[in-house]
């Protein structure tokens, strides 16, 4: 493990890292993006995100962290085209986001599986909508269920699954659409620590297998360091901006348990926690995260 690199990142300032150029092709380009909500009833505008600029390199996992209410979920909604943005450039795989995109899949905190469909038919739903031939749906769904370890539960209904299994099915559904970018909004936060570790390892393994690019929102500092190649830290809302970008050079193909034992892990967790503490309002800054 490259502990020398890890220490370098842990001691570098956020500003130094923010100015470092991104290497290689980019899966998501975000330049001066501003997003807000109009209320027709009140004739008002609420600025959730002011001027975000950062990139997600191809074949990377980037964690988006920041105080509650700073606009992380809002931003993910704009990336997949469910919510318009007011200014800036937002490009997925080189093309501007102008509306809902079939090439981005989203995994939310709660699995939101359709209770009347079996696991298999939930996972294949997006493919069915696209008119994919039945045999191809069956093959692809079978492959995805295999990947997340749910093959034996294909015929089960969501209520017959544990929370962790439901989130696995949700992940399989997102992957079945073969997205160029997987967006995850606190996907493991409702799970117990052991299940979270297991699913985190699965995500890391699937990523290595598929070379999928992932942008993941998380509140958990340790989760961000365990999983990500890079953490993008947003400032406190309203009108949040990118506060800093932190590289996590802990290596590819790692497992969460191995990572916890690396010498670079602790300093990175502390650095990220300190950055987030500094963003808390004065009255709650003494509380731990
Ligand atoms: N539909 C909406 N209409 C108006 N304002 C909204 C809407 N959705 C979110 N907001 C506001 O936008 C801001 C950002 O909300 P958002 O849910 O994106 O934050 P977040 O960073 O995901 O928070 P958390 O970490 O708690 O999930 C908040 O102030 C919220 O009240
Ligand atoms: Mg949110």
Describe what you observe in this structure.
With 289 residues, the chain is of the alpha/beta class. The protein has one domain (3-103, 179-280): Rossmann fold (3-Layer(aba) Sandwich), CATH 3.40.50.300. It is 36% helix and 24% strand. Strands 5-4-1-2-10-9-3-8-7-6 form a 10-stranded mixed sheet, with helices on both faces. Strand 1 (26-39) and strand 2 (44-57) form a beta hairpin. Helix 1 (3-11) packs parallel to helix 11 (265-277), helix 6 (134-147) packs across helix 7 and helix 9 crosses helix 11. The longest helix is centred in the last third of the chain and has 18 residues, at 193-210. It is globular, with a radius of gyration of 19 Å. It starts with a helix and ends in a 12-residue tail after the last helix. The model is unreliable at 1-22 (pLDDT under 50). Bound molecules: adenosine-5'-triphosphate and magnesium ion. Adenosine-5'-triphosphate binds next to strand 2 and helix 3. Adenosine-5'-triphosphate binds at residues 37, 46, 48, 68-74, 237-238.
List keywords for this structure.
single chain; 289 residues; alpha/beta; Rossmann fold; 10-stranded mixed β-sheet; 10 strands; globular; disordered N terminus; binds adenosine-5'-triphosphate; binds magnesium ion
Spell out the blueprint of helices and strands.
Elements: H1 3-11, H2 14-18, E1 26-39, E2 44-57, E3 61-65, H3 72-79, E4 87-92, E5 95-96, E6 104-107, H4 119-123, H5 125-129, H6 134-147, H7 163-176, E7 181-185, H8 193-210, E8 213-217, H9 221-227, E9 230-234, E10 240-247, H10 256-260, H11 265-277
Parallel strand pairs: 2-10, 3-8, 3-9, 6-7, 7-8
Antiparallel strand pairs: 1-2, 1-4, 4-5, 9-10
Helix pairs in contact: 1-11, 6-7, 9-11
Bound molecules: adenosine-5'-triphosphate and magnesium ion.
Residues 37, 46, 48, 68-74, 237-238 line the site of adenosine-5'-triphosphate (ATP).
